[in-house]
Amino acid sequence: MPSLTLVDLDGHAHELAAEGGLVAAADLTAATGWVLKPEGLCRDETCVPLLGRVVAVPERPDRIDLAAWAAALGLLLVHDADEGVAALAPSAETHARQAADGRAPSLVLTDVDGNPVSFDEQSGHKRVLVTWASWCGCRHELAGWERLQQELADTGLKLFSVALDADPEDSRPWIEAGAPSYPVAVDTAHVTAERYGITNVPSVVWVDEDDRIVKPPTIAPGDDQFVDFTKISAEQHHELLRAWARDGVLPESADAEPPVRTDDEQRALAHRRVAAHLQRSGRTDAARRHLAAAQELAPWDWTVRRGGIAMTGGDPFLGEEFTSFWEEWDAAGRPGYTPTT
Fold first, then answer.
1. Domain assignment of residue 290, given as a range
2. β-pairing verdict for 158-163 and 184-186
3. Are residues 248 and 278 in the same domain?
């Protein structure tokens, strides 16, 4: 029986026996933990009623309609039948529901060498999630963040850095050059971007001792190497961070509402996951098709647009594709580039 590679919400790839959009029920359960029961789709203590949806093929109960299964769970599915690859992302409604309690989503990732690193392990401390990428000038700023971490170490503040790259090796030179003492993860599936609503780098998120997000994503450079481009002083963020770390004082931007995600933006992330898998397996033309779809759905998401240029071997700094995108974005008022205030 042919197989389908399914990239799940954690960015992990699973091989499922499949025919078209029908997959082996046992394989899907092994990959995701969801079991079809009379009361609905169940995982651990949670059951989602099907409300009339049919996810199993009546004549073949060992086969699941993957699209119907995803819809029942509030997930978006991008399925490339020709390439045998599919990826999931939460729908906008599901994403909003998960974010409604204001708690920091779980992040268990890997470092550049494939070792597990967990943002969750810093629970109980004030934490700063710092996102960057090798396709951004912020790749040079890890040492700047290291200086700030050392300065504020006595407050108990913990930094956790995530590179939003397509391949760990893209990040390695900059991690080695910066020599940070804080954990650095490489998120090839962009799970961090999806869960925290990050669409540009360098973005930071502040999380308090009770695991509540107290400041949603804003742009914050680690130093002023590229201030002429960013037009944002690093000290603008760092002074506010010092006040929060030492005195518990939150800035004005802590009251900002995170941008409302759309299904198009969420589906773009699933297209990007398919593209990343295809690119890693050498199917660059197919990867470009999915990147194009993602870029059309989320035109101002730099993790998709600029990151996609780098993924398929383009020049994300001086190339014509990036220059054209930058001019378009700058003329539109730099959407998504909100500084910490």
1. 263-331
2. parallel
3. no
